[in-house]
Design brief:
eight-stranded parallel sheet; Sulfite Reductase Hemoprotein, domain 1; alpha/beta; homodimer; elongated
């Protein structure tokens, strides 16, 4: 098991649930736009949010963001270590530094202040920030060397990451890193190509590592609204069984017996409940022949009939409704469960 | 390296490119609907197509399908081994049998005829077809045992598969299977839940195995139009670097300098070229400040200006066009490359 690190009240590593991160795409200096984005990310299921801090205006905005954000905030620092020091003073909950573009002396100074203030640091090594191409093993070693530098400067509240734009390199680098360290790992793939392929690449790299027990916090990087990053991140956790707090819609594949628009209702229910954070199974079945039996595993569901359909709860018929009331009835049931 | 098996003229295993499979969702007995679907799948990039053969009408249709299909066909057999024998006689190029629902005597008889006619067989073990829950190791062993039974009956043109609806179980079962055998492996995850999560689960399981060099042919199973299965299958191959014959659209993340609708054009180009089967890089850049330099790696691209934009080929400006001609110019360039 990895060590645990607390970012404000959020535990990373040490057996804590894998957390989902994203990053704002607004100007951090624009408080209103940035806090709005942070709230959107939070509502989509984001556990902690990174904001870039490229200038002093961003630091000033950060002070207020830290106060109003519903989730812990991470300051993303490149080139200028003094912005890291100022971000710590502004009360940020975690820092991300890139050893590819910060000098050693700066890194040490940041580590010293972070240690005094109890602020954890992510050491985020990116293949793209290196002056020459490093192998996965070299990336992992550079990351661990930087962690040692930080330890020497007095801090051991660290999270490590080694990203590349290649699925295979990312998997290899993290496997290597997880052998070299017991610090918690932030897992992700750097952006490559279009959103279409980016989602598949991130799913494979992150999901493959998580399935092998590697990874404590994740970020899916996409050139898209960051809310999509959170949605995809949560999907990866669900796919490998690390997040059961969601609605699973079970739909029959439809056949000649199907009386209702199964796919339409299934998609509507899925969309309606996509921000729902409790485990719930809802069945949408096209007929009563197999539907009632097959929806047994569901908390509730509908089985279609010619003009009227039946509502099933825990395997029993509890109600018969006209087909044009199916969606409104399902909405009512979802809301009822949401109150529990 | 795995052994190689030929399905008509398509090599599976032995270092051949990983092939993408899908399955028709039409009634196989309906020749017109089924051949139309096979052609759609072929156009989407499907290398071989499976059709279910549940009755004698399907066998009769199969005879004609084999004659007209642009790709090799696989007959999917459950319960009745005689339909497998009849499918071989109908000229099918490969069989899929499920040891979970065929008796040993039937399997032997099928293996014998398949061997005489040179027809390869996939031994497809599914967790869902077992009377009790098997561990990944037990699934792999059941698969290898069935392969031995087939060898005893005289055939060694085999492809093996062990599917489950769990990502972790699927990965474990195939890792185990790849240690036990050098037959080529058909990799996939059985359908679980909605399309949304199904795609992520398949991407992780299949992609993770392929990244480790496990898998010779793949199928993404979805409750959706099977064309989607092929699209997702090709995306997985591309994500892990096993298929470079596609168009990669490189787009800038956009900023205050952006003069043109980068995301819109990038998506249009991507959609326009999604069935293109040659490696091609197209850049869509919002401005000329960084755009010209950053599109150097592309075969061609556009860099936006206020009213006019420039067309770049291999890093050089070759043409200036009004902004309302961007899309038509990109279409022309794609068509030109398509002729080569």
């Amino acid at each position: 098991m990895t060590k645990s690190v607390f970012v404000k009240n959020l535990q990373i590593g040490g057996g804590a649930p894998v957390s989902v991160q994203s990053m704002t795409d607004t100007l951090t200096s624009d408080f209103d736009a940035t806090i709005a984005r942070i709230n959107q990310l939070y509502n989509a299921g984001c556990d902690l949010v990174r904001v870039s801090v490229p200038d002093i205006d961003s630091v000033n905005s950060l002070k207020k963001l830290v106060e109003f954000s519903p989730v812990p905030l991470i300051a993303d620092i490149h080139y200028d270590y003094k912005l890291a020091l100022k971000s710590i003073e502004a009360g940020v909950h975690k820092l991300r530094v890139n050893p590819g573009n910060l000098k050693k002396d700066g890194i040490k100074e940041v580590a010293k202040l972070a240690s005094e203030r109890g602020v954890p640091i992510r050491v985020g090594v990116n293949q793209g920030s290196q002056s020459q191409k490093l192998s996965p093993t070299e990336l992992a070693r550079l990351c661990v060397d930087t962690a040692c530098l930080m330890e020497d400067a007095g801090t051991d509240k660290l999270v490590l990451a080694v990203k590349s734009s290649s699925v295979r390199e990312t998997i290899s680098a993290y496997r290597e890193l997880s052998k070299l360290t017991d610090y918690p790992l932030h897992v992700g793939l750097t952006e490559a190509g279009t959103e279409t392929l980016g989602i598949t690449k991130s799913s494979i790299a992150i999901g493959s590592l998580l399935a092998d027990g590697i990874g404590d916090t994740i970020r899916v990087s996409l050139t898209a609204n960051p809310v999509r990053e959170v949605e995809e991140g949560r999907k990866i956790l669900r796919a490998v069984g690390l997040d059961n707090n969601f609605v699973e819609v079970i739909a029959c594949p439809t056949c000649a017996r199907t009386c209702i628009q199964v796919e339409k209702y299934a998609k509507e229910v899925e969309n309606l409940t996509k921000n729902y954070r409790k485990p719930l199974k809802i069945a949408v079945m096209g007929c009563t022949v197999n539907g009632i039996g097959e929806s047994k595993g569901a908390d509730f569901g509908v089985c279609g009939g010619k003009d009227k359909s039946v509502i099933i709860m825990n395997g029993d018929i509890v109600k018969t409704i006209p087909n044009d009331e199916i969606m409104s009835e399902l909405i009512k049931l979802v809301e009822k469960y949401d109150d529990k």
